[in-house]
Amino acid sequence: MTHRFAVGLVLLLAMFGAGAAVSAQTAPEKPSAAGASSAYAGSEACMTCHEDVYKKQFEGTPHFQTTKKGGHGCESCHGPGAEHIAGGGDKSKIIRFAELSRAESSRRCLECHGESQTQRHHAVSAHASNDVGCIDCHSPHHAKSEQHLLAKSQPELCYGCHAATKADFARPYRHRVNEGLVECSDCHNVHGTAGLRQVRATQGGEATCYKCHADKQGPFVYEHMPVKTEGCGSCHTPHGSTNPRLLRVSQVNLLCLQCHSFPGPGPSGPAHNQSQKYQACTMCHAAIHGSNANAAFMQ
Amino acid sequence: MTNRMENAGSKYWGSIRSHARMLGTIGLLGLSLVFPATGRSQSQSAAPEEVSYGGYRVHQSIEAGYRFSDVTGNESMYDTLINLHEGPRIFEQTLSMRSEKHQGVLFDDLFLTSLGWGGDPNNYLRMRVQKNRWYDFRASFRRDQNYFDFNLLANPLNPATSVPSVSIEASPHTFATRRRMSDFDLSLLPQSKISFRLGYSHNNMTGPSWTSIHEGTDALLAQPWSTTQDMYRLGVDVKLLPRTVLSYDQFWNAYKGDTAANLNSTPYALADETPVDLGLPFNSAASQPCATPLLGDGTANPACNGYFAYGRFNATRNSFPTEQLSVRSSYLAHVDVTGNVSYTSGDMKLPSYAELYEGLTTRTRARNSDTEGTALVHRVTASADAGVTVHLTDHFRLVDNFRFYNFRLPGAFAYTATTLYGATLLSVPNVFDPATCPPPFTAATCPQHNASSGADVAAVLDQNFLKQDLKSNTAELQYDFSRKLTARVGYRYQRRTIFESSSDVQDLTFYPTLATRGACATGTVDAEGVCTVTTTASDDATTEIESHSLLAGVSVRPLTGLRLSFDTEKVYADHAFTRISPRKESRYRVVGSYTPRPWAVIGGTVNTLTNSNGDADIRFRGHNYNYGFNASLNPHPRFGLDLAYNYSDYQQNSLICFNDTPPTGVTLPVVTNAGDCSANDAGNPLLTDSYYQSKTHYGMFLLMVKPLARVTTRAGYSATAVSGQIPQFNILQPLGSLGYDYHQPLASLDVDLVRNVTWHAGWNYAQYGEKDFAGPTAPRYFHCNEVSLSLKYAF
Lengths: 299, 795
Hints:
The structure holds 2 protein chains of 2 kinds. By secondary structure, chain A is mainly alpha-helical.
């Protein structure tokens, strides 16, 4: 398998290299920002009129690095500004992000930021599909959170659209997001993932839950198979729940019986009398996430 | 049980509480007196200001003080939900340093935030240091003290009519653990043609916890938790072409599971004063642990199920390296490409499993068993994804995302179990010896089996295999009608193949007496009266699931500040892996937000999910309807109001077959009205449409008023109200979390004492109360008052 994998990688590299080489001969230049024919005026010229923004909202931010080593500073994002200046500040002669569609504005950001590991899936992300762009969460000139130039800090930023999630995290049984222990971005890659709901995965492609709940990952000799195939969400509601252990149902036995009953692919519910101690399935089946020693998850 | 609870948490300050309170109060008063004298200007506000130091703009703050806490009611529930106790605390600390000219020697930016030091259950420290073109270092440390004791979880619900009556007031599956997580990530030369990434994560969870074991009866086990996971990351990014980066990553995940389990206590004694545990369930009418657990003299009945000792040691070691190759390119003018391939192959090793049981299982007469073995599970995971966005025109895009995920888990457990048998807890289990157990193999010195006794020696090899192969492709067409209107339509195809197999080979040896029992019932005995047999069993199944999803959405921004978004997803699958895995699913979501003024944000959401499995014998139906709105109004720097309301209606129904015999004189509607399932499952002859419905209202407001420039007041209220329905299978089963109210009002006062110094007084109240208290457990109700007094120094 290892050899096959290595061969596959080499082939992939070769294919990519060949494709890139061919494309390099024909690929047109990416469209530069607006007004490709315009000339750059330099950030100092921008500061003449926009001194307040320049001093307070640009100079101290990481974006100021765009002024260095031949960078165009303000014009790196807003495009060449000579015509804008010549026009006496004509707004139509400069790129204003508020006037762009979210796809257009995000594309401009990703010209630089798209190469980061975390932002690579943005184009295929749920946020992008729903017309949520970079500037919906980031505010380069009016950030409330210095790090990442966020318009607000987590989780309030996320609650702005995901109001139901705010209610989830207010429930008594919840992940400690409001307390700051867990951040939305610990479990979700807000810039997109290959999977659904922008949920992160472990390096092996498994549920991100295992990063903290490492003991549940296994692998086990006796797997409780839906844990691996259907995911933790089969039994748990990850944000918050009205029930202990974030369970979907308030009684453990009903949750179990809804799967372990005729007809079902797994074992049907054993003939345990619900009016006796067996109402709590996990009292005996304590290793319910998987076991290395007992097929019935007793230990 | 009481003792373990007291020990578990050292909960919390005990006799030093009053002293600490006094010292804290004195300290705060002292600080309040000292700071005005040292303040730079009493007329200045304490609003954070940046200072320049060594070429950096520096801002930092620290808030320290004392929290007073007063809890009334169920303290275990309080600790499960809140767990904020009394004592001095550093509530929050921040530091930010930004190079004024982006020319710092060691770094350009440094951010550091931490909170909760001094004993709070959750605390963290997060930091980021970066020098633009050279490195970006991020680190975090998080500590989570997880106290969990919801006493309905794994509770046998012993009836008060049992003799003796033993109420289980704490959950047998209590946790009082601490999880410490550290993450370190370093990017070197992040903007260079070749850049490197290094990372390390550490996750350590330790502390007391409890579980239970079933051997005749169910015993409480102490389970000192000890797990450690270390993750190492090494990656390199190569920018081959403009806007194109190729990455290779190597990960290694190492896990150590050293959690063991031992019998928690032996609170009873036999007539010969041997300590014994009769277990958690006490229902003498149902012979749990037997009809007469305690004899007239108060000693334990030796004919009962019970435990003298139990121990389990199963240290596991996991090692999983992962290689990953990924690419992202927007080199071509109208095409964005992203791709990722990863491969994991590693093992879970359990080199030495040992389980020792001493006691009595009356059904089989097992008195002593010793199980030893080894386990090995291999995990092979291959995953890949590829995303392509083709910009057909400036406003029209084709987005395709393919995903492949395949894992295989072959595992084996080989063990030998040796069991000795005896009639009672007082009898000495006989070891088989042909010399002391001659023909006709019925001597009192022979092992004392009954017909239900298992094998005396079992050598077992279990082999299991689970595999899933998933392929999914999502294609969407996205069109920007204008910068204010975007719509999309898409289709997702997914195919899953799940294969499972198991094989069980058992070499069983049955000693006399009654050697021809169990699997040897039809066997023959040898000259020494021993029956041996080899049993084999195997099974396999394949489930193939094909699903088709229709995706659509539209997003519109008709006015400046107004955004409305609608999207839907309808899924149809031809099969399901579990009964409650839906074969049909519909999601509709509407999100709206309106910012009519910069100081006003109003939002609303409608989220509906319905799913079902229409199989006539399952009839699974579920839904989650969620409606909410929120508003944040800050028209003046001295006034702010946040509002939110959310309503959730959750349902999960399906047909189930079950077995239920209520005690004499008890009528349970779910039993009385049950249908007949005996033709399909004789052991579970009752049929019902099991329903679970939960309706949750959540509302909150937070009002901020600054009556004076240096005084800030806040008042707020958060409430969650839950109600619902569920069949009651057991007359002793409280409805528990099906219905309760959870209230959390708060108020605070902040006064800027002097420049950079703010005095804070806060009050938080929490009240949790279940609406139904029926059952043998104590009511799950508490309310608490927490008062925090602190000083915040910020510049």
